[in-house]
Amino acid sequence: MKTTIENKKGLEKDVKVFVDKKTISGYLEEKYEEIKKDVVLKGFRPGKVPTEILKKKFGKSVYGEVIDKVLKDTSTKALEENKIKPAGQPKIDLKTFGEGKDLEYIISVTEFPKVEVNSLNNIKINEYIVKIKTEETDKRIEQIAKTQNNFKEAEDGYASKNDDLVVFDYKATVDGKDFKGNEGKGTQLVLGKDLFIKGFDKQLNGVKKNENKKVEVNLPDSFPEKELINKKAIFECIITSVKKPEEVKINDDFAKNLGAKDLNNLKELISKQINEEYKNSLDMISKKQILEQVDKQKLDELPRNLIEQEIQILSENMKEDEIKKNKKSLEEQAKKRIKTGLILNAFGEKNNIKVSQEELNVEIQKQFKMMPGQEKVVKEYYEKNPSAIERLRGSIYEEKIIEQIKKTAKVNKKEISKEEAEKILKAENEKNLIEQKKLAKHNHEHREKTKDKIKTIEKKTKTVKEVKSVTKKTKVTKKVSKK
After folding, report:
1. Helix axis angle, 263-295 relative to 418-482, nearest 10°?
2. What digits encode the pLDDT tens for the residues 358-416?
3. How far from 354 is each of 4, 251, 281, 349, CA to CA, in Å?
4. Residue 431: Cβ within 10 Å count
5. Rounded to whole angstroms, how far apart are CA atoms 20 and 213?
6. Burial class (CB in 10 A: 0-12, 13-18, 19+), 384
7. Cross-strand partners of 167
8. β-strand 124-131 against 410-417: which pairing, if any?
């Protein structure tokens, strides 16, 4: 195999590949020996059919398969030998081919640009450590305590009221008849919240333990038995318990109920939780600082095909007229994303960063936890959408690269209070809003300029038409006057 390279333009290259007929013949002989084992023809023993007979019967299809294999093997080898990394699928143009002939073809390819990543070692970032005060932790624990229901059995003869917990068994009927799901045992209702059937718990106000109570309500629109919707149901209730709310005591028992070892351990966990809440948001600022500095790195040329692919992704849900209006900003965004992606990828390759199947599985498991009851749907989504798996892989890959950059970056560690963290996050949000408004204004100004250009063209067109019309009339006048 011989190769020669022609630079077409920038990153676009043509690689001429020449494979002599002797090599092609070797591939063909190998293929015939392979199929000879399985071919069964009348008059010949299995595996003993002469190659010439096979050529006459299967020549065209065998040659087609062989050429496909030769093209695959030699094109990959040609790119590797010339150290060309294709940015997208290369195009192959056959020039000379045929049985008994040399093979000559051209690979038209756009290659990735050369990317220098040593400068990423000089990146500077701020890393924030939020110091949580004891009173902040105590305040959060008090808020949690308020959400915990704690009830104590009321004394005999106590009549229920709002905020009390009533426990009861019931049997319901509609028009004197039973229906599916008309019985319940140990049903609990906190009075005043109206969470069962509208108007139900109001009728339980004033009930006492061991009392029988008849409750009448209209069955709601969400009732499973559709034929009973809005029909009056009578619930015969037996009150088994009435409990009064009791203030939750913040102590070791309270902490244990929440899964902690004791109260001190709970405070440690809550403090860590508050810190993590701010840390995640502040880490996003650090990541943005990294990406902003990555974007300042120089990259002379970007593959045009990748830019076009990125524009398609960015404009996926946009209408055609909207794409035309935002063409310039879409291209700028695409270039920025491609450039950042190429630099990060080059850094990842240099540092041998990879995403394992185990890491992918861990990330999918996280999504299972975020969508309880929908695990099957999430699983099927990834099974049916390989592109979704690749996007997830890309997201994990980027996070690993960012973490690696952080390790070599010049980190300015700052210990800050919760109030300072909130100020930083507020300032960042305002900054993002300003950037969004600037982008919107830029797009609006671009649209207005386009409108002005169209109006100018329309005026010029109108003027030209008027001039032609006057000229035409003048000619007609001249002709009439001559007559």
Report:
1. 30
2. 999 999 888 888 887 788 888 888 888 888 889 899 999 999 999 999 888 898 988 88
3. 33, 47, 26, 8
4. 12
5. 98
6. exposed
7. 188, 241
8. parallel
Distance (Å, whole) CA 289 – CA 365: 30
Partner residues linked to 415 by β-bridges = 129
SS3 418: helix
Tell whether domain 149-245 is in CATH 3.40.50.300.
no
The pTM for the full model equals 0.59
For the stretch 110-147, pLDDT in tens is: 999 888 888 888 899 988 888 888 998 999 999 998 88
Report the 10 Å Cβ neighbour count for 161: 14
DSSP one-letter code for 466: H
Question: What CATH number does domain 2-110 carry, 3.40.50.150, 2.130.10.10, 3.40.50.1820, 3.30.70.1050?
Answer: 3.30.70.1050
Lowest mean pLDDT among 218-222, 319-323, 339-343, 455-459: 455-459
Domain ranges of the chain: 2-110, 149-245
End-to-end CA distance of the chain: 84
